[in-house]
Design brief:
By secondary structure, the protein is α+β, with helices and mostly antiparallel strands. 23% of the residues lie in helices and 32% in strands. A five-stranded mixed beta sheet has the order 2-1-7-4-5. Strands 3-6 form a two-stranded antiparallel sheet. The longest helix has 12 residues.
């Protein structure tokens, strides 16, 4: 199982600040597809992913017990 943490407007889209998924050894690209298809969270190519507090790229693998944070772009001034 992996834990997904949502920040900012992603919490509104997901309806929660975190979910737990029963998946193991899944690439970030596959995780993006799963979140879009099963949870309706789209445009994830614009979102930064972090696995266990380290930024991740699409080919990185999320393993059982990992925590994945979805961090939207920050704007302000």
């Amino acid at each position: 199982m992996i834990t997904i943490l949502f920040f900012a407007h992603l919490q509104d889209l997901a309806g929660t600040d975190r979910i737990t998924l029963k998946v193991n050894d899944i690439k970030v690209t596959a995780l993006k597809k799963l979140l879009a298809n099963e949870h309706g969270i789209n445009n994830l190519d614009e979102i930064m992913f972090a696995i266990n507090e380290e930024y991740a790229v699409d080919d990185d693998v999320v393993k059982a017990g990992d925590t994945v944070a979805l961090i939207p772009p920050v704007s302000g001034g």
